[in-house]
Amino acid sequence: MSQRYFVTGTDTEIGKTTIAAGLLHAARLRGLSTAAVKPVAAGCETTVAGLRNDDALALQAECNPQLDYELLNPVALAPPIAPHIAAREAGLTLTAGQLAAACSRVFERGAQLTLVEGAGGWRVPLNDRQTLADLAIELGIPVILVVGLRLGCINHALLTAEAIAADGLRLAGWVANQVDPQMDRQQHNLQTLRELLPAPCLGVVPRIEPLSAAAVAAHLQLDTLIAPTSGMSS
Ligand SMILES: Nc1ncnc2c1ncn2[C@@H]1O[C@H](COP(=O)(O)OP(=O)(O)OP(=O)(O)O)[C@@H](O)[C@H]1O
Ligand SMILES: [Mg+2]
Question: Is it the case that residue 80 has pLDDT exceeding 90?
Fold first, then answer.
């Protein structure tokens, strides 16, 4: 069993990395091998080892067996800006095909659960012609949508789910992440999302302080992502 999912979100900074790390942690607790890819990361620190991105490092910490940074994050760009602009400034051209090839190198490791984290939302440009969605299409893998719970999220969630379906991909599930602890009528919003999104809810993650992948994992349901009989292998 080798399950692969593309993790997208209703926006940037709404919890894609947090939820992806939680899902990987939950899989590890079941004894499953895990891997992750952050194909393009804009917003990196210069270190002695090279450019390093917080998202990629958080995902790397939940990979078992360990995965080399360069495999996990093949394109690391320094400024925290739109990836196609950061790439152009670095003299690079991003393409869906090139990023898909990098993802395939991680898929070849054969982990039982591999998550690919996009950047921002579904239609973030890679170049003049292609978006992150083209990478997901090229990979042909189902999608997990992280919904950052705040005013306006129903619209963003439904538009994203429509775009995923229009692109011919399957929405495997969605996770509600409480990014706004003060959100008014949160339960009612959640009920509407449950009614209108065409996929199962994999969990509702509250605001967690201090945040850890283990604490997030406790709020997530893996059963629909992973066959229940597939656990406990090395
Ligand atoms: N449930 C939560 N409880 C507490 N803090 C959270 C929660 N979810 C996310 N955060 C915090 O919110 C910030 C954004 O989360 P995260 O980095 O996971 O978002 P993202 O969608 O992956 O962002 P990007 O678009 O930059 O990749 C982080 O600082 C993270 O620690
Ligand atoms: Mg992220």
Answer: yes
